[in-house]
Sequence to fold (506 residues):
Amino acid sequence: MAIPHLRHPAPPGTPSTRPDLPGPDLPAEPGSDLSAALGTDLRAEPGSFRDPANRVLYAGQDVLRALDETAAAHWRALAGSDFFPPLMAAGKVCGTEEMPAATAPQRWAAVLRHDRIPFVSHPYEWSFTMLRDAALLHLEILREALPAGFTTKDGSAYNLQWRGTEPVFIDVGSFAPLREGEPWAGYRQFCQTLLYPLLLNAHLGVDFRPWLRSQVDGIEPDQMGRLFRGVRRLLPGVLTHVHLHGSVQRRNAARTTTDVRAQLRDAGYSRELALATVRGMEKLVRRLDHQPPTSHWVDYQRTCGYSEADRSTKERFVTAALTSAAQRRLVLDLGANDGRYARLAAAHADYVVAVEQDPAVVDRLYRALRGEGERRVLPLVMDLADPSPGGGWRGTERASFAARTGADTVLALALVHHLAIGRNVPLPEVLACLTALAAPGGRLVVEFVHPEDPMARRLLANKPDGLFPDYRRDAFEALLAARGTVEDRLELPSGSRTLYRVALGG
Fold:
């Protein structure tokens, strides 16, 4: 089971996220006992309830994991192993330490404290290469664990998060001692949330994101099998991990897990065979690739029509806005394109989430940032006119994008006209969306493209006459004034675009 933790407010110097998410109804014992031990109230992570041996909780600014007796024994064996501490030291597994025994309440045998993740994202917000790199880290960790006598109970993509462009495995509670002759329990989850999405993109050019967004447990083997018939069955990885997997699943549907394990042991399934399977999957995943078709946005910086004077003036304005902010822990760059302003923001902020709609653009940006070793910019694929909703159990197991944000500064550069004209979103709604992504008292740096601007005229040319009578500079400024204080404004040298720095109302 994946546990997408680390979502709540961070201590100074760590990006802030939303503290006001309701959790599912949970038993009172862990909250009452542990709250008393730590001297603070606890909040349950909404995505941590499927594994009764583990529960992720928040105590003030701390991210904790309560363990029952079996899970605590597994953790101590894991912490004392040869393979786990090096993975944690390398940042491939989130930093974890056991707290003093006095903090463990009666119901739980131990409590762990985890390092925080700067910003929680979901697999359907990642580019192809991001998903592939996450899958490879998952397999690398399993490959290291098996010879040491450990496995992972889960194989979900939600077990991974990001520090910039570096994936990190977060579900420490997933590790368990390996029982000889048993298969990897996380294989199905790995296929459904990581391998199958990669196969869809690499072999068919089909975008995996809508599939993962609509099904929290990922893509079923039968769904994949219908897409890979005929000669497609022979594509790398399909016959074994789609059709054979689906066939075995159907054949064993009426059998218990214990029966299946016993059959595999009798057939000679061994740790060596499991390790060979993992290495084979690593080789398969590493070879998968997807080159998305070139879009207009891939070369936007060259085709957008900014003059050099406009560009340099805009950069100076954005830099001044960032350096004048009281807090710059988390910056959102909405409509980030090639990351020009995300990189600029990273020089003045602790962490930047760069959101762009085009998967090809995000994949190119991720590869570039990865090559630069950038750990302060997280690129995500998202349509801001249809952002990630809440999902899973009760709609809170996977938090919506709006619920995960709370940025100190929101950059919305060359974006408003695409939403207001291109997507028919009224200007008041556009501003409501942008300001809702900021923390109370945060700042908005926004660009308004005048109706006479060439890009605005191009968008308006495809719309019926008179459809946007309120798309005017004076109307936009009135909306800004209603939501905060306009601290600075600057018209670019071209004369058809204006930048604003707004201190939002608390």
Remarks:
- The chain has 19 helices and 16 strands.
- The first strand starts at residue 42 and ends at 44.
- Confidence is low (pLDDT under 50) at residues 1-32.
